[in-house]
Amino acid sequence: MNAILAWLRALFGADEPALADATAADAADIARLHARSFRRGWSEDEIERLIAERSVLAQCARTGRKLAGFIMSRRAAGEAEILSVAVARERQGRGIAQRLLVSHLGRLMALGTRAVFLEVDEDNVPALRLYRRAGFREVGRRPGYYAGRDGKPANALVLRRDLT
């Protein structure tokens, strides 16, 4: 019976993650996901301090109690920088990053943000596809900004999207 219910949930999207503002209670889960997603993960303390900042907007996607993804940005002077976006490996390819990004951009716009920036590894094809579909365009490049997987430096692309 449980197997049938799980199959029906998967088939009809009953396990669709709910989006909500991140709180200090989410810091440990976000830190674990960040560490699994990036070469240098942020600590729980770093995440908690970011979430506490008035200029930071952080949102989570959860399925029940399980963190499926998050997005975090910092606002200043009518602009924002997306600091990090991550989706749990087992939940990737299901549109969660897109839902988080669209929701986040809407929230930023409602807060009076006129432009959003981010940096992304030029070799991160899925992220570039996500950002380009969302209307971001390349406005700069930082040579050798990231430590590449093979030990060679990787370039960062600076992307921008106007919200007005």
How would you characterize this protein structure?
This protein is of the alpha+beta class and 164 residues long. The protein has a single domain (15-162), classed as Aminopeptidase, CATH 3.40.630. The protein is built from five helices and seven strands. It has a seven-stranded mixed β-sheet with strand order 1-2-3-4-5-7-6, sandwiched between helices. The longest helix has 15 residues, at 96-110. 27% of the residues are buried. The model has no long low-confidence stretch (mean pLDDT 91).
Short note summarizing the structure:
This protein is an alpha+beta fold and 164 residues long.
The N- to C-terminal Cα distance equals 51 Å
Order of helices and strands: HEHHEEEHEHEE
Looking at the overall shape, the CATH architecture is 3-Layer(aba) Sandwich
Main beta-sheet annotation: 7 strands, mixed
Give the number of helices. Answer: 5
Count all strands and give the number: 7
As laid out across the biggest beta sheet, the strand order is 1-2-3-4-5-7-6
Q: Are there runs of 5+ residues with pLDDT below 50, and where?
A: none
The whole-angstrom Rg is 16 Å
User: What is the average of the pLDDT values?
Assistant: 91
Q: Supply the number of structural domains.
A: 1
CATH topology: Aminopeptidase
| Helix coverage percent | 25-40%
**Class based on secondary structure composition and strand pairing:** alpha+beta
Described by the principal axes of the CA atoms, the overall outline is: globular
Strand content: 35-45%
- Please write the CATH class name: Alpha Beta
